[in-house]
Sequence to fold (232 residues):
Amino acid sequence: MSVEFSNPAPASAPAPLRIAALASGRGSNLQALIDAIAAGTLNARLVGVFSDRADAAALERARTAGVPCAAENPKAFASRDAYDQALFAHVDAVQPDLVVCAGYMRLIGAAAVDARPGLLINIHPSLLPRFKGLHTHRRALEEGATEHGASVHYVTADLDGGPVIAQARVPVLPGDDEAGLAARVLEREHPLLVETVRWIANGRIQLKEHSVHADGARLQAPLQLGSNNHFA
Ligand code: GRF
Fold:
């Protein structure tokens, strides 16, 4: 008599999401990803950090975490497309599942973005579509906004205009100045970015036909970060 054992595969977690990051500056959002991965709360692997500035503090953070990194100087290229091609040659070489723009202060040309639909996300310090571009905190104060915050969105060729995935809201307080408001927003950016990447790593967020889908359904409004640092 032969007995057949059925040996179902153990329920296993999905493979870690391979993340590449682009960063130009201090890299605190990058650090939030590094820390969440190290803490085991984000099923991901940072496979490369790339920059337009060889002296970016973000690169030092990557090196400290043992993540390969490289920088390309835009001034060494004849055009934006030529620069993007050089930068994305590094990115493509590490075969990322996701590219996170974490304080990457340079426009990415349409050719590079359009060739990688749904691959790039960006964190922006405002409640998009309000205050695209620079100096968002100053502009929010000048306009007398009572609420401000941060957004994570898919990158398209339209600056800060791609489909918004998620937001964290921050009240503007009487007496707020630009630096104080920026600091309070930044404090919420870190959990917002980590939670968004966590949902992507868990296969819960996708870009389909130019719209964000969460758990298979088209999002009607961006996901909102709760005070518990998870989406409500
Ligand atoms: C953040 O405010 C981010 O939203 C914006 O640039 C800043 C980068 O900060 N795109 P850091 O380099 O992550 O500390």
